[in-house]
Design a protein that fits this description.
Blueprint (H helix, E strand, L loop, with lengths): L9 H9 L4 H8 L3 H8 L6 H17 L3 H14 L4 H13 L3 H14 L4 H13 L3 H14 L4 H13 L3 H14 L4 H13 L3 H14 L4 H13 L3 H14 L4 H14 L2 H14 L4 H13 L4
């Protein structure tokens, strides 16, 4: 899921009104253009609050370019200038989270929530950071807060479903995915993950239906084809599984498990040549996995002697 960006427009728009000549730079800065933000910062026409907002915007621009250390530095400067700016903490939290610095991100989101406890986006992003470190109960609590504040937030239901699924709470996960799909019927991810949850319960027909709908919504979803193949395998449909694994490989030629599992399906059908080719392809992609060598050895023993 793409990160939510929260920007503080008030002071920036005040600058627009007070200095019409800045209109172009302001528009470019809000459109994540670093150079325009820098010109506004260096103009010498800003009070502390307005300057803090321009640092936030430049930080967002740096983050959009993948310059996460610069984004963190700019948001830190905004916090120095305006320690009560919730969006400065929020956006620094986003940069920390994008950088894999989850503890720092959680701390920044928590401070942003202390300053503004009514913003659903702040709870949502803290939940994502909590989930990333395995704090699933806390993440679920934050997703529930998002839903309390914004009952139509499909992302909150979807991600709470993921947290429930990670805890093994499959019925709760299915309920949340279903609500996410009701709110956003074209969410291939929610459909795919609900299919995975149905498979975990042994509800294979429902799983096939969900994965098929995910594929209809997004025909480029390698994950949906892969998961539908797993369900076909569970039902003994080796030919259908092979067809889906082949589609996964067409969409993503480095999807290693698709080669391995297609090899298993070929092996079950007695097609040792095709199985061997797939296991060898898997070994090229994952050379350190002993299962690859074991599968190749096993299939070689099955090949008819010439």
């Amino acid at each position: 899921m793409s990160k939510l960006i929260k920007i503080a427009l008030g002071a920036a728009m005040a600058a627009f009104v007070a200095f019409p000549a800045w209109a172009d730079d302001l528009s470019l800065c809000l459109d994540k253009q670093v150079e325009a933000c820098t010109r506004l910062i260096e103009s010498g026409q800003n009070d502390k609050n307005r300057l803090a907002n321009f640092f936030i915007h430049r930080g967002i621009a740096h983050e959009a370019k993948g310059e996460l250390d610069l984004a963190i530095a700019d948001c830190s400067e905004a916090i120095r200038l305006d320690p009560h700016n919730a969006y400065a903490f929020f956006n620094r939290g986003n940069a920390h989270r994008a950088n894999g610095e989850y503890s720092e991100a959680i701390a920044d989101y928590t401070e942003s929530l202390r300053l503004d406890p009514t913003d659903a986006d702040l709870f949502l992003n803290r939940a994502l950071a909590l989930q990333a470190v395995g704090a699933l109960d806390q993440a679920i609590a934050d997703y529930s807060q998002v839903i309390r504040l914004d009952a139509r937030n499909a992302n909150a239901f979807y991600n709470r479903g993921n947290a429930h699924k990670a805890k093994g709470e499959i019925d709760e996960a299915i309920a949340d995915y279903s609500e996410a799909i009701r709110l956003n019927p074209t969410s291939a991810d929610a459909l795919n993950n609900r299919g995975v949850a149905h498979k975990a319960k042994g509800e294979l027909d429902q799983a096939i239906a969900d994965h098929s709908e995910a594929i209809r919504v997004n025909p480029l979803s390698a994950n949906a084809f892969y998961n539908r193949a797993l369900v076909h395998e569970a039902r003994g449909g080796h030919d259908q599984a092979i067809a889906d694994y082949s589609e996964v490989i067409r969409l993503n030629s480095t999807f290693a498990l698709a080669f391995y599992n297609r090899g298993i399906a070929h092996e079950k059908k007695g097609d040792t040549a095709a199985a061997l080719a797939d296991f060898q392809a898997y070994q090229r992609l994952v050379p350190d996995d002993p299962d690859a060598a074991a599968a190749i050895e096993r299939v070689n023993k099955q090949k008819p002697r010439e």
